[in-house]
């Protein structure tokens, strides 16, 4: 398809959606996506915190180090070609690429790196806490970040492994921004924030060419991208809130990809010209028992519970395509995951475990659950399967706010909920599932352990903090795997599933990468055959 036709097609997609049925067969070099993008509040990397925002930032910007499309499980060079860590001095020194260029044509310099990282801390918008973990404040950040030539030295405070620091620097707010371009559009000391919420200033595989909130995003390929130019000349994301409309557009050939179809709609798709790909997501779903409830404190109850979940029964029916069996606290698909699934539905074994421990049944328990699908369906499945061993759940449905408030107040008995990491380092979840050194009621912690009043054994607390500071990357990952195995074996928190995400697309589309979080959605390798 010639460039003029592609341009006319792109222009047409920017118009209101009425009459789009007549516009079938997208151009060979343009990827057209239907997606609900009304969650976007900000696209400046220093402020972006929504799911769709994360996807855009990843495709528009580079970081010093980054997880990339070729293999989202490997931390790879970005703006930096190499780095040297000094754990004792608590520094990491990065060597910058000498050929890095922003999409504006400006070279990427050490000054841009210092500006970008310090800018996040000084603006102090929503995602700033991720970088602030390194002990950075508006008052000290300029001293913590220094440069000499093409070398950038990052200093941090805290007993952290360099691997942890690298994962923090691979997170969304650590994206490198073109200082000259941002400051050219500064208004009232905002360091370009308002302008960057409608434009891009990165060096990534794409550049933002049009953005209309609640309507459309258009990105153009960076032909000079250092890992190779994207296959698609443009990526166009149309805001289509209704899943049924997304399905219709896909079946008509007006789009290449539908990002928000329901499981029922996915199941109803037919024809050789459409396919569905499934991607594991970072959220893990669990059943937990509050240790303030006396009848739930015996480890035999925890062990029996692991054999009373009908794992395959649920994944084959009510949560098919939405979740897969995963029984450890760190999601599959990222370094340090523990993917063993030793537990299956075995009510006879569960009954024997309870009997051997002298636990009298029935054990009556209230189960709090968000009053929405698939959670209520999952709760009913648990109610039926646990009853087989004499554990009787009374389901208490509530709004998300009501359920989470009870959870934070530690006033529930059993809870069906989910957890996702703030950034992709195993410590993000290890602290939540394997650490609680102070179980006092007045020591509020945003962790599953504290919220379930589980006084974690000293061994696990010690190992969690040791893993955080372990300087050997492989040894550190092994420590997290061991932590997961121990928590999997004995804990009042029963991890059952990992979320999955189904994306429907044309059969000719390949190379789409959707990692475990929105920060790992990549369009650079997409092509149409």
From TrEMBL:
UniProt KW Hydrolase keyword: no
Coiled-coil intervals: none
Record's protein name: ABC transporter substrate-binding protein
Subcellular location: Periplasm
Keyword Signal: yes
Residue ranges of every copy of the Solute-binding protein family domain listed in the record: 76-440
Domain of life, source organism: Bacteria
